[in-house]
Structure formats: structure tokens, C-alpha cells
Amino acid sequence: MNLSIWDPFREMEELLDRYSRSSRKSLAKSDDKTFEVGDWMPVVDIDETDDAFLVKAELPGVKKNDVNVNIENGVLTIRGEKKTETEDKKRHRVECAYGSFVRSFSLPQAIKAEKVEAEYKNGILNLTIPKSEEAKPKQIEVKVK
């Protein structure tokens, strides 16, 4: 089991962002041309195996070239942008969220950053972040005398 430092302010900031976005959506009128959905935040799952951390980020509508993944000082950062269509159309309603996003997660120091694998397919980003040897659980044999 790995422990990470809990940052209540980061969690509170994310909750306030979500509340702010949902409030703007619910208060907007359907004919309000000035309403903008604003930035959106993709959902992320992080799982752990004996050998690696597995990160899955749902990024529907985001092109591969608009996604950037970085690990620096034990922090995984996923950045990107979901761009609007640029065709000249008369829009009657916009409910899809567009804009930039940044998600950051603290990782244990004991990872192999140079061996991280990233795969992007059908709007899903999968990262495999291998653990270094000192982070893997070690089985200790107990001898009975």
C-alpha cells in the first residue's frame, strides 16, 4: 500500500470548479448566446498492480495531437484541449463542453518515468507507469524454528 500526501485545498478547488460549471449550465437559458460552457475536466481512473500504476483518462472528442502527458517531480500531468468545430454554421444550441483541461496527480517517487507507456485509442488515454524495484511489494519468508 502506498501513501500519498492528501491536499485538502486541491480537492476543494476541484469541487468548486465542478460546482461552478454545473451552476453555469443550470442557470443558462437555451436562447442565451453569451453563455459559454467553459473548460471541462475529463474523468480519470487510477489503479495499481504489483508492477505498475494504470491510468485511464476519458477524452472524448480530443485529438491525439491535442493531448500532452508529463511526469515531473513525482507529479503526473495530463493536459489537452477539446476544440470546437470551425465550420460556418448557424448554431441553435451548444451543450457539448469544449476548451482546455489540466489534471495533475501525485505519484510515489519510486516509479520508472523513462519506461512509461501511453496509448490513445477511441478517446481513451491509457498510461502504464511501471514501479521501480523498491516500490514493489517484497515477500519475506518467515522461518519457523
Brief account:
The chain is an alpha+beta fold.
Describe this protein's structure.
The chain has a four-stranded antiparallel beta sheet with strand order 1-2-7-6, with no helix packed on it. It has a three-stranded antiparallel beta sheet with strand order 3-4-5, with no helix packed on it. Residues about 25-35 have low confidence and may be disordered. About 15% of the residues lie in helices and about 30% in strands. A hairpin with a 2-residue loop joins strand 6 (about 115-120) and strand 7. It has a single domain (about 10-85, about 95-135), classed as Immunoglobulin-like (Sandwich). With about 140 residues, the chain is of the alpha+beta class. It starts with 7 loop residues before the first helix and ends in a 15-residue tail after the last strand. It has one helix and seven strands.
Major sheet summary line: 4 strands, antiparallel
**What is the number of strand segments?**
7
Shape: elongated
In the CATH scheme, what's the topology name? Immunoglobulin-like
Number of helices: 1
Which CATH class? Mainly Beta
Classification by helices and strands: alpha+beta
Rg to the nearest angstrom? Answer: 20 Å
**What's the average pLDDT?**
80
Instruction: Please bin the fraction of helical residues.
Output: 10-25%
At CATH level 2, the architecture is: Sandwich
pLDDT < 50 stretches: 27-37
Order of helical and strand elements = HEEEEEEE
Beta strand %:
25-35%
Number of domains: 1
Main β-sheet, spatial strand arrangement: 1-2-7-6
Q: Alpha-carbon distance between the termini? A: 30 Å
